[in-house]
Design goal:
Two copies of one chain form a homodimer.
Chain A lengths: L23 H18 L3 E4 L7 H11 L4 E6 L3 E6 L5 E7 L5 E8 L10 H16 L2
Antiparallel strand pairs in A: 1-5, 2-3, 3-4, 4-5
């Protein structure tokens, strides 16, 4: 049998990876606008990923494009939340999980620091009272 | 042999646990002052534990008194740093390690959020340029 007799099928690659809806790239443009606003006015913002028509492949694509930064935060409060800086400083990937570890919501937050990481003055005031009680018992 | 014949030695407990120098309790009082200042003026502060005459037992005692909070931050930058909220909101236990994992310094920071966790505007601006380049290549 000569090589010429082997049927050859030219396979055209699909326009995008299967599972990519095309909804993710506009999100990157929206994020760039939000980062610009953060720098200009200090205003933070967030995109609720659970509320958008994104497939797991879209989310993986976004995750890969944004990359991983140096800072990772975990917050334990009726389930674990992770707030991870991306390779674009000021853009944070935020995942909330319930007590069983299932993801309940995902956000991309644009902020110098995510709101949840900050101690709130009223909690600090309560903590100070407890600390002063502890000191008086020493 | 009657019970009366058993020699009884009354052991007086030592004044403090061995290894406790007595230098740690004043630190708690200093921290309470710093938290008060944070609430009143917003001013952050830090105590460099490596610069104080504290034994490992003193540090364990302080760690135990301050307790563990809900937020834990890791920062990867030529060695891992951990910035852990204590049970007193606004008080963070900060440990810096070198690339070999050895502790290089320890601080107690009093702040709504530790300075190192915040994205710096100039890094955000550089990140935005990279993001815009990435978008133009899509």
């Amino acid at each position: 049998m000569s090589l010429d007799a082997i049927p050859i099928h030219v396979i055209t690659p699909p326009a995008g990876e299967p599972g990519l809806t095309g909804n993710a790239p506009p999100l990157l443009r929206e994020l760039a606008e939000q980062v610009k606003r953060l720098l200009e006015t200090g205003e933070s913002s967030a995109i609720d990923l659970s509320a958008l028509p994104l497939t797991p492949t879209d989310l993986d694509w976004l995750h890969e494009k944004l990359g991983a930064g140096e800072i990772a935060v975990t917050l334990q409060a009726s389930g674990e939340s992770t707030l991870n800086e991306t390779a674009c400083p000021g853009i944070w990937w935020v995942t909330h999980r319930n007590e069983q570890g299932a993801v309940t919501s995902q956000f991309i937050e644009v902020a110098f620091v995510p709101e949840l990481v900050k101690a709130h003055p009223q909690d600090v005031a309560i903590g100070l009272e407890n600390l002063e009680l502890m000191i008086s018992d020493l």
